[in-house]
Amino acid sequence: MRCICPPLARCSFILFILVLTRLVTGGSVNRTIDDVRGDSATGALVQYLPQVPAGSKSLWFNQTSCAGCADVPDAGQTFDGTWSAALYQANVGSLSVTMKFTGTHIYVFFVVPNFLANSGLASTVSCQFFIDSVAVGTFEHQSDGSGAFEYNSLVYQNVTLPDEDHVLLIETSGSDAAIIIFDYAIYT
Ligand SMILES: *[C@@H]1O[C@H](CO)[C@@H](O)[C@H](O)[C@H]1NC(C)=O
Ligand SMILES: *[C@@H]1O[C@H](CO)[C@@H](O)[C@H](O)[C@H]1NC(C)=O
Ligand SMILES: *[C@@H]1O[C@H](CO)[C@@H](O)[C@H](O)[C@H]1NC(C)=O
Known about the structure:
The chain is mainly beta. It has a single domain (29-66, 79-187), classed as Galactose-binding domain-like (Jelly Rolls, Sandwich). 10% of the residues lie in helices and 44% in strands. It contains one helix and twelve strands. It has one helix at 7-24; strands at residues 31-34, 38-39, 47-49, 60-62, 84-88, 94-103, 106-113, 124-131, 134-142, 149-158, 164-173, 178-187. Strands 1, 2, 4, 5, 7, 10 and 12 form a seven-stranded antiparallel sheet that branches. The protein has a five-stranded antiparallel sheet with strand order 3-6-11-8-9, with no helix packed on it. A hairpin with a 3-residue loop joins strand 1 and strand 2 (38-39). 24% of the residues are buried. One 2-acetamido-2-deoxy-beta-D-glucopyranose binds at residues 131-132, 134, 136-137, 158, 160-161. Residues 1-26 form the signal peptide. Keywords: Signal.
């Protein structure tokens, strides 16, 4: 049978289904922000600082570019097959990962390394979290010396944010060396 309903009626029907879907899910949808591919809905990319002039050595490493890295995470076990890491040292001053999102919940996932005790590699993961420029938390981890990477490690979550635009800043600074390996974030 040929459909003879006017376009407006069809639009209303689609709108009705959308409203119903939102009601059923409580209006909450999880979206991901991948370290390389960015926001699954908007495509907005994550920003990494410090940025280096073209041609000089980057402080940030990833699954495709990690010259001189002795021990790297298995990209196959990370979200979207990607990870982004940086080694912080006091002379760097500050390094950071920044992303924007709109919503009420944010969950941040790292790959947490436990480099072998005698490897000479960074034994500490350390960073501070800021939402809209307000310090809201920290994550600290000391290597257990086992050599194991902990994938999908939830290092920060906040489920009490007002439903509006937010900026999440993950920063490492201070006098102690540390490594961070960012994989992805989820926001609701
Ligand atoms: C969103 O993701 C978080 C973290 O994985 C999970 O705890 C939560 O149940 C998810 N919420 C929805 C609506 O899928
Ligand atoms: C990996 O890192 C290099 C050097 O920082 C950068 O040029 C490249 O765009 C990165 N690639 C991905 C897929 O993140
Ligand atoms: C979540 O963010 C709000 C707004 O910045 C802040 O007041 C609150 O302390 C945060 N909660 C957690 C668990 O970090």
